[in-house]
Structure formats: C-alpha cells, structure tokens
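Hi support team,

I've been running sequence recovery on a batch of backbones for a student project. Most finish fine, but this one hangs at about 90% for roughly twenty minutes before it completes. I'm not sure whether the input is malformed or the queue is just slow. I've pasted the structure tokens below so you can try to reproduce it. Let me know if you need the job ID as well.

Thanks,
M.K.
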C-alpha cells in the first residue's frame, strides 16, 4: 500500500469546494463573509458551526472542532485520512491509482470488492434501463410506467429499468467474463440447492437505489405480472450486503439533499411512486424508506442536512397510522428536528392527489397545509370517535393529554389545554390536574424548550451568530500577541522574513514555537501559505486546531510595522518581566507567611524595580 503523495492530496483537496461538501450534510446560511449552521458534531440550539469558503476550512466556535474538507469527513463519518481523500476524489471525479485507493485502509480486499460491485451495479442498472426503453421485452413495463403518469424524462432521470422474465444477467456476465465470485456476492442471484443460480429480479420494473452521492448500490423491483401461485412479493429489494443496508438508505436521498436547500425540509413519503410523482410535480425533496419503518440511521441522514421533516403519507386510515408510527420514531430526535404533517384530503395518496388535482395544487398543499404534530394528534385521535358522546370525549381527552405529557412544552400545554376547554366546555383547572397526574405517573417533566429549529427557520438571520473577533478563550496579553504574530508570519512573507532575522526571538508557548518550526519545512515545499494545505501538513491534532482557530479569529487583513513591533515587545520584553514578577510575587507571599521581614523588604524592592521596568517597555 502506497502513501498518498502530497501533490495528489493537494490536487484532490483543491478540486472541490468545502462548502459544497458540507452543504450536503449541514444546512448553512450566509452571514457576513462566512456560512453558519448547527454543528453536526454536537447538539446545540444556536448555530456556531462556520465554514470559510475563501480559506476552505470549517470551525465550530462551541465544541472547537475544525479543519479542512478531509477533517470534516473524518470527524463526521469516522473515516481515516486516506478514506477521506478517496471519498473526496470520488465526488470530484478524480481517478486515483489503486495503490492510493487502498492506502491506510484496514480491509483493502473489502475496499476493492466495493469498487468492483459499484461498477457492476452501474452496468446492470444501464442494462435494465436499456431493456425498458429500447427493446420489445420492456415495452409492457414502459407502458405501465406511462399509465402511472411517469414521463420518459423521469424514467431517464431515475434510470428506471426492467428485468425480464427470461434469463438475462447470467448470459450477459458470461459474455463479459465477470468473475463468478463477484457475481455471487452481488445479490443479483439466489443460490439453489443444486449449486445453480437463479436471477433474483425477473419480470419486475426496476428502481435503482443510490447512495448519498448518487451511485447505484441496490435495486428494488416491482412485480409487473402477479401470479398468485408463486406468492411473490409486490416489491423485492436487493439483499443486504457490502454495499447495501436497507436501514441506512433512503430512496432519492442523493437528489433530495440538493433540492432541500431552498425550504430546509425533507418530505417523507411512503413509497417510491409517491416520490417519483412528487418529483415530477416539482417537489424534489422527497424521500422514502425501503418498505420498512424508519430507522435511527435514516433519521440521522435527514438530520445532517435539514432541520425539518414533513410527513406526507397516504390519507387513508392505514396511512395515518403509519404517520403516527413515524412521529413516534422521530420524536426522540425532536431536539434536532421539527416535525410537521400534511394530511391529503379524500384519503388520497400523493400519486392519486396529483393525478386528480394537478401538480400546482399538490405543491400548494405541501407548502401551505402542514400541521404541527399536536394538531395532527387532535385530528387523528378523533378518528372513529363520536365526540358528541361523553364516553368518547373522555377517552379522546385522556389520549390527547398523554400526547401533551410526552411531547409538549409548558407553553404548548397551556395553549392546548385552553383549546380543549373551549371545545368541550371544560374547566381548564380540571384539565391541568389530570395532566399533572399523567406527568406524575410517567415521572416526566414538561419539555423546557422547543426543538432547536422550532423558532421558524426562515428567521435564521436573526440567530445569534458568533462574533469571531472576540477572544473566546480569554487569552492573556502575551498569548494574544503570539497568536497575532504567528498568523502574520504565516500569511505575510515580509513578516516571516523579519521574525526569522530577529536575534533571540522565541515564542513563549511551545505550541506556537512548534508551528513556527514546522512551517519552515512547509515553506521549503510551498511558495505560498494555504491554510487548508497547511492543516494536512501538520500531524498533531492540537496544532491543527490551533491553526483553524487562528484562521477563524477574524484578524484584520493587513499588518503594520507598529503592530509587529508591539507584538515583539510584548513577547520578548514584557513576557520575561511578567514571568519574573509572578515568581517574585509568589516568593513575597511565602515570606509574609513566614513573617521574614528582611526578605519581605528585599523582595518588595525588587518587585518595585520590575514594575518600573514593565512601565518603561509599555
């Protein structure tokens, strides 16, 4: 395994904009020169995570993490440095040598298999698409999609395909001499007891499943002709394997994360056809799970990129039950995600609604008719109940109070208790007493704050953006001078040369001295300073974070000779005096405790002399 050369690392890093990479995973808003969002590495309510597009670095002013685009992926995904380089190269379309692709990867064989499987799935996806769109064998499947309202443009956009009933892949793989071991690991075949293989997908409309960067990693096939004697499932997914874990993937996530930038939300649909119909209607930020309940991993995928999920399941009773289950699954994440629900009228599903009322009306409903979770429960719990009946009323109120106890803030509880009281002509105090009983039984106090995005994300500009010019860590005078001087040295050749030629100069703190020494080696290779490049040049994580902190500090653009001289004066003159003053002050305190009057007098005179010297150099 070869070490990735610095020139290759620099090429990969400079080929992509860190803003594009981070935006795919964090919702950002521009404020001044930088972009801000909620930190993906820890829970917070006010955005303190910043991306400097010009310097190609990120920094969180709260948790302190920072670095370049490679550091970001390493922190977010737990990637090694070589894995981060390879991932960015992949996103940038840069082909790295095989020796670099396996560098530093613990399981290089698995990495190579992954690459081969990705190439194989890409080929198979193209083959299925060709059969659907350009052969007689695919005509019936094509007609089916057209009848469902899916246009040729959508078929091409999503690379939809068809797997015919006849054997196809086995002959294709034999002709192209695909390794049998790879075929067996692909999940495209089912092993029979006699040792032969049976194609998993036959007579199915094929939906390619993509990872977050748009690479095909699996398929879901919808049966075209139902045969009751075979008891085949309507939808069949690829089995879980090296590339694919259905609990960690969302259909259309790769496209939705780009489309979600405008309104900062993801629309959660029940099925693939709903996603496709909505996409065709102009709602492109829709996703669907793989025919199973949502998982924490899927919620985390959404949480990375947007602050809000709008659930738009079928309008019938089964769809609303599924909506309730989804809310219950997502609720533990409510400190990070705001939930809303769109209930379609007439018990229609999204595909049916679009066909009946058109794309414009669907977009309007999705945008304007979103219920909060508590309003959804008010409606959902009333289903199949006669609220004119006192017995049903009591059960309804009891169930809704249970929801308030679990999900509402104190303010929300007060508002909804007022609504219940007015609706059923009940005394608010009795409702409050009943709610307190529920809280006591569940041993739960009301939430003290809303979801971090509950304030209405459109008002992002009103969030308190960190003031980067403040000394967050309250450095003393000497260290502030060291930090400013080091920054000037790195970014201005004239200052670097001046300090290099200053006799007896040394930084007081070891970390700044270390960075200076390492920078000498950096400038032997690079003619100009680039913070993102220098971060990779440094090996020590603390030194990397020091550089990020300096870069995000917000120093003025250019230095002056007076500024540099002031820094030198503080570091070389005031700093030694301060150290001596501190030492003598400690000795004086000890002398006072011992009541050594002679020593007290001597130390006091020496201290006075040092104070005079300090005054003179200021």
């Amino acid at each position: 395994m070869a070490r990735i050369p610095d020139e290759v690392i620099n090429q990969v890093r400079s080929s992509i904009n860190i803003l594009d990479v981070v935006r795919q995973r964090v919702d950002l808003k521009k404020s001044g020169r930088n972009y801000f969002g909620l930190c993906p590495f820890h829970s917070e309510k006010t955005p303190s995570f910043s991306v400097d597009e010009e310097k190609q670095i990120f920094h969180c002013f709260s948790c302190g993490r920072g670095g370049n685009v490679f550091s970001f992926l390493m922190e977010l995904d737990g990637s090694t440095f070589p894995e981060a380089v390879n991932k960015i190269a992949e996103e940038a379309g840069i082909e790295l040598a095989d020796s670099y692709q396996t560098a530093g990867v613990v399981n290089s064989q698995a990495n190579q298999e992954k690459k081969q499987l990705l190439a194989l799935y890409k080929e198979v996806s193209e083959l299925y698409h060709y059969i659907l769109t350009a052969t007689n064998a695919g005509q019936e499947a094509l007609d089916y999609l057209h009848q469902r309202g899916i246009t040729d443009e959508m078929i091409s956009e999503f690379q939809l395909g068809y797997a015919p009933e006849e054997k196809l892949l086995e002959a294709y793989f034999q002709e192209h001499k695909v390794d049998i071991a790879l075929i067996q690991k692909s999940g495209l075949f089912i092993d029979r007891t006699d040792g032969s293989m049976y194609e998993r997908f036959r007579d199915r409309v094929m939906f390619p499943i993509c990872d977050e960067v748009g690479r095909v990693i699996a398929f879901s096939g919808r049966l075209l002709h139902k045969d009751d004697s075979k008891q085949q499932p309507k939808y069949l997914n690829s089995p879980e394997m090296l590339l694919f874990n259905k609990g960690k993937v969302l259909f259309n996530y790769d496209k939705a994360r780009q489309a979600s930038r405008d309104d900062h939300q993801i629309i959660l649909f029940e099925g693939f056809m709903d996603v496709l119909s909505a996409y065709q209607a102009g709602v492109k930020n829709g996703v669907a799970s793989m025919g199973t309940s949502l998982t924490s991993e899927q919620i985390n995928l959404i949480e990375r990129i947007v602050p809000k999920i709008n659930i738009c399941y079928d309008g019938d009773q089964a769809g609303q039950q599924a909506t309730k289950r989804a809310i219950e699954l997502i609720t533990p994440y409510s400190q990070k995600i705001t939930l809303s629900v769109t209930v379609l009228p007439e018990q229609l599903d999204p595909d049916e609604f679009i066909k009946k009322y058109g794309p414009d009306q669907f977009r309007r409903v999705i945008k304007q008719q979103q219920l909060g979770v508590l309003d959804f429960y008010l409606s959902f719990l009333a289903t199949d109940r006669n609220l004119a009946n006192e017995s049903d009323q009591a059960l309804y109120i009891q169930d809704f109070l249970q929801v308030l106890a679990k999900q509402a803030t104190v303010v929300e509880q007060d508002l909804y208790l007022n609504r219940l009281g007015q609706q059923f002509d009940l005394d608010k105090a009795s409702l409050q007493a009943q709610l307190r009983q529920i809280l006591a039984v569940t041993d739960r106090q009301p939430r003290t704050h809303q979801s971090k995005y509950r304030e209405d994300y459109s008002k992002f500009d009103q969030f308190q953006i960190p003031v980067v010019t403040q000394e967050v860590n309250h450095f003393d005078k000497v260290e502030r001078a060291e930090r400013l001087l080091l920054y000037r040295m790195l970014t201005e050749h004239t200052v670097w040369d001046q300090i290099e030629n200053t006799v007896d100069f040394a930084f007081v703190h070891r970390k700044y001295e270390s960075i200076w020494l390492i920078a000498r080696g950096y400038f032997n290779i690079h003619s100009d300073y680039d913070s993102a490049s220098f971060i990779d040049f440094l090996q020590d994580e603390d030194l990397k974070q020091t550089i990020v902190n300096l870069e995000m500090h917000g120093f003025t653009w250019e230095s002056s000779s007076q500024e540099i001289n002031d820094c030198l004066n503080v570091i070389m003159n005031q700093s030694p005096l301060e150290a001596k003053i501190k030492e003598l002050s400690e000795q004086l305190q000890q002398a006072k405790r011992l009541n050594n009057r002679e020593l007290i007098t001597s130390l006091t005179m020496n201290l006075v002399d040092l104070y005079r010297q300090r005054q003179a150099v200021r």
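--
Follow-up from support: It reproduced on our side and the slowdown came from queue contention, not your input. The first strand starts at residue 29 and ends at 31. No action needed from you.
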